Amino acid sequence: MFEIFEKYIRQTNVIPVADLAIVRESCTEKKVRKGQSLLHEGEIWALNCFITSGCFRLYRTDKAGIEHTARFAIENWWITDMESYIFQKPSEYNIEALSSGTIIVWPKNAWDEILKLSPAMKLFNDQLLERAYIASQRRIFSLISNSAAERYFEFQKTYPNVFNKVPLHMVASYLGISRETLSRIRREYANI
Where's the Cyclic nucleotide-binding domain (predicted)? Predict the structure, then answer.
């Protein structure tokens, strides 16, 4: 499975072979079952997880017991609770496997050591964080300025591989709309 990660990383960065060997030595492969939780609210997240197969979501539950999906992640994506990971504080989120899959895992201390030893991996990590920040900005802007229908079509267009892998109530949660609103939008635009 490391070959999948190696192919992914080589698409965007030039990482010396010796650096990749350090990255490989520091990771473990983990099989995950559908419905399995990787993180529960209140736990401290100390892993860097690259998805080689499967579909996952990061979500939290509000005081009324309603789940709010913050993010989905599929093959060749990363899944993490960034705030808990960086500050080593209890998480406000849960991470759940929506399908069986495989992840490559680096403990935080091992990943931090990789970044100290490898300037190429440090650059890769910085670029990864930059892309995540930009995606967060776009998501916030979409939530505050786009209509429910616009958010739905934007999600379909931006994440076509995710759309068909997750239940509609989770898509609605991610879009910040009710399942009924999502069903109405789908009906209204079904023949367009």
Answer: 30-116
Q: Domain for residue 14, yes or no? A: yes
DSSP at 125 = H
Tokens of 174: 């991610």
SS3 state at 38: strand
The DSSP letter of residue 33 is: -
Task: Say if residues 89 and 191 touch (Cβ distance below 8 Å).
Answer: no
Which tens digits make up the pLDDT trace of 109-139? Answer: 999 999 999 999 999 999 999 999 999 999 9
* pLDDT tens digits along 150-162: 999 999 988 888 8
Give the tokens for residue 102: 């495989």
Q: What is the CATH number of the domain that holds 84?
A: 2.60.120.10
**Tokens read off for 66:** 């309603």
157, two tokens: 């267009």
Structural domain count, the chain: 1
